Amino acid sequence: MQNKTREVVLVGMFAAVLAVISQVSIPFPTGVPLTLQTFAVVFMGVVLGWKRATIALVIYILVGAVGVPVFSGLKGGVQALLHLTGGFIWGFIPLAILSGLTLKDKRIILTYIVSLMGLLLCHICGVTQFSIVSGRGVLDSFLIVSAPYLVKDILFVILGVLVGKKVRIRLVRSSLL
């Protein structure tokens, strides 16, 4: 019973941390803000593993969908998920899954590669939804909402894996995971 309680607390805590980190946001003219969400999602995946990270992310999305302002810029509601940048929120799901997939593998390079594949899927979701909602072409959408953020997001993936691995080791040693 104690392990289940610990799991519920960890998942809820990481969903809450993502909600808080999502508010660290710098607006850009493209409509896609500069945020720390990519780092937070990768970190969550690496620390919790793909199953718990995905559950935490789904909780975050559901809380936001019912109107609680947890998305960047204090946005909430279904309209935020269906708007120009909502595809990136949906894209966090494959990012969390892939970032946490190599949890038991000792090869950190594999975690980087798989997490970067998750980032690619996240950007594909974001560009696709932006293209559909805005009526712009896919290339134009990529140049507006993905290309300007790629270097930052790649760095956040690297940082998320690096910090996440260190935190996970400490949590395991402390018997908190």
Features:
177 residues; mainly alpha; Arp2/3 complex 21 kDa subunit ARPC3; two-stranded antiparallel ribbon; 8 helices
Topology of this structure?
Layout: H1 2-21, E1 25-26, E2 34-35, H2 37-48, H3 50-65, H4 78-82, H5 86-101, H6 108-134, H7 138-145, H8 150-173
Antiparallel strand pairs: 1-2
Task: Give structural notes.
By secondary structure, this protein is mainly α. The chain has one domain (2-169): Arp2/3 complex 21 kDa subunit ARPC3 (Orthogonal Bundle). 72% of the residues lie in helices and 2% in strands. It has eight helices and two strands, in the order αββααααααα. It has helices at 2-21, 37-48, 50-65, 78-82, 86-101, 108-134, 138-145, 150-173, and strands spanning 25-26, 34-35. Strands 1-2 form a two-stranded antiparallel sheet. Helix 2 (37-48) packs parallel to helix 8. The protein is globular. The two termini are 14 Å apart.
